[in-house]
Amino acid sequence: MSLKIGDVAPNFTLKNTNNESVTLSDFKGKNNVVLLFFPAVGSGVCEKELCSTRDSMKDYEDLNAKVFGISVDGPFSQKLWAEKHKFNFSLLSDFNKEVAPAYGAFYDVWLAGKWDLKGVAKRSAFVIDKNGVVQYAEVLENAGTEPSYTAVQETLKKLS
């Protein structure tokens, strides 16, 4: 079951592409957090989503938000992809598939064209306020659909 507005966001610690630990609760009282779960490094829609986020990073920073992309891909492939696209926000590896299920952002089986993949993050967007409470939650069943960036930023504006 996916999280909804008003839920306390499950805390987690994941590694970024530099093998540094990122813990959600470290941002409590400091920053709003945007979590963008995505199915797979290198896929077309994921690339479009994260490049759009990269290009809008100034807007997120102006709204006092830290942005993280999360997938079940390993940190090595995430690092190569982040370097290729010059992402200016951290990608976090949920390789052990613990965080995406906790957020209700998880396909047990994801049918991607000819691929039948088990255990992949659903494309999702969450805004978590400085108190650790979910203020926006969008979990998409169709991985070909992007989240509403406008709704994410409008939520952040209300928190400013």
Concise synopsis of the structure shown:
This protein has 160 residues and is α+β, with helices and mostly antiparallel strands. The protein is built from 5 helices and 9 strands; from the N terminus they run E-E-E-H-H-E-H-E-H-E-E-E-E-H.
Task: Write the topology of this structure.
Blueprint: E1 13-16, E2 21-23, E3 32-37, H1 44-55, H2 57-62, E4 65-71, H3 75-85, E5 90-93, H4 99-102, E6 106-112, E7 115-121, E8 124-128, E9 134-139, H5 149-159
Parallel strand pairs: 3-4, 4-5
Antiparallel strand pairs: 1-2, 1-5, 3-8, 6-7, 8-9
Assembly type: single chain
CATH architectural designation: 3-Layer(aba) Sandwich
Biggest sheet layout? 7 strands, mixed
Radius of gyration: 14 Å
CATH superfamily, please?
Glutaredoxin
CATH topology: Glutaredoxin
* DSSP strand count: 9
* Count of separate structural domains: 1
Helix/strand/pairing class, anyone? alpha+beta
Order of helices and strands: EEEHHEHEHEEEEH
Mean pLDDT: 92
Shape designation: globular
How are the strands ordered across the major sheet?
A: 2-1-5-4-3-8-9
Work out the strand percent: 25-35%
CATH class bucket: Alpha Beta
Provide a count of the helices.
5
Whole-Å distance between the termini? 29 Å
Low-confidence stretches: none
The percentage helix is 25-40%
Key attributes of the depicted protein:
single chain; 160 residues; alpha+beta; Glutaredoxin; seven-stranded mixed β-sheet; two-stranded antiparallel sheet; 5 helices
Task: Describe what you observe in this structure.
With 160 residues, this protein is of the alpha+beta class. It has a single domain (13-159), classed as Glutaredoxin (3-Layer(aba) Sandwich), CATH 3.40.30. The protein contains 5 helices and 9 strands, in the order βββααβαβαββββα. The chain has helices at 44-55, 57-62, 75-85, 99-102, 149-159; strands at 13-16, 21-23, 32-37, 65-71, 90-93, 106-112, 115-121, 124-128, 134-139. A 7-stranded mixed beta sheet has the order 2-1-5-4-3-8-9. The chain has a two-stranded antiparallel ribbon with strand order 6-7. β4 (65-71), α3 and β5 (90-93) form a beta-alpha-beta unit. The longest helix has 12 residues, at 44-55. It starts with 12 loop residues before the first strand and ends with a helix.
